[in-house]
Fold this protein.
Amino acid sequence: MPRLYLVRHGRATGGYGAEVDPGLDDIGREQASAMADRLEPLGPLLMMTSPLRRARETAEALESRWRTVAIVDPSMGEIPAPVEDLSERHAWLQQAMGSTYSDLGPRFASWRTMIGAVLLHVAEDAVVITHFVAINAVLGIASGQDGVMVSAVGNGSVTIVDHDHENFDVVEVGTDDATTVVQ
């Protein structure tokens, strides 16, 4: 069974409602380094990352140690907001976090299904650097929960799931922290 190490990117310089594509702040770089300390002995493994800057910068910590380059996969990106205005996007995400995919509708239920399908097709152990909602999508699929937020996985944390190409089995959920949707 392939094992997936789902890494939430390190802390960014700005939140979902403050910047379109922020990079990591100093704490985020420390979180990326700590994640690389933990995962370095396992590899090099296949590595996939969201195209967003905060995820790419998190991936760099392992890329340099493993002397490899992560595959940039747009399907591992952030949940697509239905609005572009940053303040409206922030408000939408706050509402969405307390919702279910059924409540959000087919567009978002399909996004969740796509995340699961892509990861269930990964045929070998891999590190996937992605986002809070994407990791929660996998946790929800694994547990049969429809909620957008299943666990408050922390920045730089590692959530481990195994899969048999049909179902996920949660091995470890990334450390919780006081995750909030910030502007």
Remarks:
- Confidence is low (pLDDT under 50) at residues 178-183.
- Strands lie at 3-8, 46-49, 71-72, 126-130, 158-163, 168-172.
- The longest strand covers residues 3-8.
- The chain has six helices and six strands.
